[in-house]
Amino acid sequence: MRTSFRLALLCLWATPIALCSQGFQLKNEVLPNPDNEPAPVHPVPHPRQLKWQETEFYAFFHYGMNTYTNKEWGYGDESENLFAPTAAPNPRQWLEAAKAAGMRGGIAVVKHHDGFCLWPTETTTHNCTKSNNKFAKETNIPRDFAAAARDLNMKYGFYISPWDRNSALYGTDRYVKEVFLRQAAELAQYGSDQFEMWFDGANGGDGYYGGKNTKISTDRAIYYDTPNLRDTIHKVAPDCVLWGEGGEARWIGNEAGWAGQTNWATENRGYASENNGMYGTENGWFWLPGESDAKATNKGWFWHEGESPLSAERLFQMYLETVGRNATLILNIPPNKAGILPPASVKALKDMGQLITNRLSHDFAKTATVEASEVRNAGLNRNYAATNLTDGNKETYWATNDGTKSATLTFTWDTPQPVRYVELMEYVAKGQRVRDFKIETSADGNNWTEQATGIETTTIGYKRIVPLVGPTSESYKAPIQAKAVRVTIVDAKSCPLLNRIAIY
Fold first, then answer.
1. Which residues, in sequence order, are bridge partners of residue 295?
2. What is the mean pLDDT of the chain?
3. pLDDT of residue 25
4. pLDDT tens string 414-455
5. How many CB atoms lie within 10 A of CB 21?
6. How far apart are CA 459 and CA 461, in angstroms?
7. Dihedrals φ, ψ of 52, to 5°?
8. What pTM was estimated for this model as a whole?
9. In the chain, what is the straight-line distance between the N-terminal and C-terminal CA atoms, in Å?
10. What is the pLDDT of residues 95-113, one digit of tens each?
11. Who's near 269: CB < 8 A, 6+ residues apart?
12. d(CA 203, CA 331)
C-alpha cells in the first residue's frame, strides 16, 4: 500500500517533464490590449497625411512664364524667350522670407497650365533652357528650391499642372504616359523627402496644343491615371502627399484663406465634394483633410506690376481661420521678374511671423494645475492623465473610458492670467471625434462665464484655435482675466482623445 502511494506521487511529479519531452511548454498569457488604448474611429489618416498636416503653414510660390507676360493662365503659345529673368532666380530668398513668417515649408510652381517648365525636362522643349536669356538657361527651380529647403530645415514640394495648353499630345492617350507621368517622375527625383506635390484641378478648355488652337475636354476623374500617378510618386517619395488630382488632401474651396468653423477631415470621394471643401463630412468614409490656398497679395497668383501685400493683421486672421480650424494654410507670395520676393512682401511676412510669435507662444496652460472629470484607466505602458495635455509630447494624450463621450478639463492658477485664445488638438491618429465643446472662464475659481459664444465650438480635429474675446478679425483685444479656464467636451463620436491644450 505504501509502495503504491509512493509510485503515484512519483508519477505526478514526473508528468510535466514527460509532457515537455513530448513538445509541450508553458506560455505567458498576452493580453489583447495591454495598454488599454482606445479603439480607432475610422477613417484614420495615413502616416504621410498626418506628417503633412503637422506642417500646418507653408508657402506657395507662383513663378514662371506668366510672371513675364502679365497673365494668370498662359495660352501655351508663348515664345520661350519671353521667360527673361533680370537676375538669377533665388529660391533661397523665397524660403527665408517664408520661414520668418513662421512657415515650415513651401511649394514652388514649376509648371503651370501654359506647359512651360522651370527645369531641364526631357518631355518638352517648352522649358526655361530654351530661352535665349542668360539667367533662364541656367534656371532649375526644383534643384535650387529643394537644396535651399534642406539647408533651412524646411519641407518642400512642387506644383505641376496636369493640364498642358502647349502640348500637342494633350487629350490623347500618349500625353499622360509620355508627358505628365514622366514630368511627375522627374520631379520626384529631386528629392525623396518631398512632403507634397500639387496637381491643380483646372482641366481642359481652349489652348495652343501644338498649333491646333482648339478646345479639348477630358474627364479628369480617369484621364490622368491617378492610381498609377500615386504609385509612381510614392515609390520614390513615400511621405509625399498628392494634393488635388492625387486624392490625398482636399481643396478648401474658396481661395480666400478661411475654413469652416465646423470642419471635418473626413469626406466622401467625388468632385461634388469640392463644393463642401470648407466643412468636410462628419461620417465621410475617406480621410481627406483640407488645405486652404490663399493669396498674400492684392492681385493675382503670379506677380503683377503695382501689387502690394495684405496687412500682417489680415494674414494673421487667415492663420486663425485655417490652421486654427483644422486645415492647413498654403499662402501664396509671388516672386517678381528678378526672381525674388519684393521687399514689401518680405516685410509683411516678417510682421506676420512676429504677430504669431507674440500672440501664440506664451502658454499659460504649462503653469496651470490641470484636472479632468474622468481619466481613462492606465495600461501597462501608457497612461491617459490630464497632464499629458501640457507635456509637449505629441504621442501622449488624455482620454476617457469607453462609453464616456462628455468630460471637463479645468486649468487653474493661484492668480488671474490674461487670456485671449485656447488651442485644442485631438489625437487624430485614431480618428476625429469631437462634435461639440464649450469654453468657460472664471475670475475667482467659483463663478463661470461661457466664452466665444459667437463662434461654432463644434469640431476640433488636428488643431483648433478659439479666440475668446471676439471674432477672428478682432481677436486681439483686451484679455479676459481668468483664474481658471474650463473646457467641456459636450459630445463626441466616441471617447474623446486630446493630446494638447494651450492657453494664450
1. 332
2. 94
3. 67
4. 999 999 999 999 999 999 999 999 999 999 999 999 999 999
5. 8
6. 6
7. -65, -45
8. 0.93
9. 86
10. 999 999 999 999 999 999 9
11. 247, 285, 286, 288
12. 23
Residue 420 near residue 466, CB atoms below 8 Å: no
CA dihedral 295, 300, 306, 311 (to 10 degrees): -10
**Neighbour-count burial for 278-299, b at 16+ CB within 10 Å, e otherwise:** bbbeeebebbbbbbbbbbbbee
What is the distance of C-alpha 177 from the center of its chain?
A: 29
**Cα separation, 143 vs 213, whole angstroms:** 33
Q: What is the 3-state secondary structure (H, E, C) of 399-440?
A: ECCCCCCCEEEEEEEEEEEEECEEEEEECHHHCCCEEEEEEE
Query: pLDDT per residue over 15-28, tens digit each?
Result: 444 434 455 566 66
**What is the rounded CA–CA span in Å between residue 227 and residue 160?**
17
Rounded-to-integer distance, Cα 414 and Cα 148, Å: 47
DSSP secondary structure of 93-148? HHHHHHHHTT--EEEEEEE-TT--BSS--SS-S-BGGGSS-HHHHT--HHHHHHHH
Q: Which of 66, 161, 154, 139 is nearest to 106 (CA)?
A: 154
Kindly provide the b/e burial profile for residues 155-174, where b requires at least 16 CB atoms within 10 angstroms of the residue's own CB.
Answer: bbbbbbbbbbbbbbbbbeee
Residues 6+ apart with CB under 8 A from 55: 104, 105, 155, 195, 196, 328
Q: Residue 238: pLDDT above 90?
A: yes
Spatial distance between the Cα atoms of 47 and 122, rounded to a whole number of angstroms = 33
Mean pLDDT along residues 267-287: 84
Please say whether the beta carbons of 335 and 341 come within 8 A: yes
- Please provide residue 325's backbone torsions phi and psi, each rounded to the nearest 5 degrees: -135, 40
Q: How far apart are CA 249 and CA 422, in angstroms?
A: 26
CA distance linking residue 9 with residue 22, whole number of Å = 21
Instruction: Note the pLDDT of residue 16.
Output: 45
C-alpha cell read off for 117: 517648365
pLDDT of 1 over the 60 cut: no
11: pLDDT strictly greater than 70? no
- With beta carbons less than 8 A apart as the criterion, state whether 495 and 374 touch: no
User: From CA 65, how far away is CA 73, in angstroms rounded?
Assistant: 10
Cell of 301: 497668383
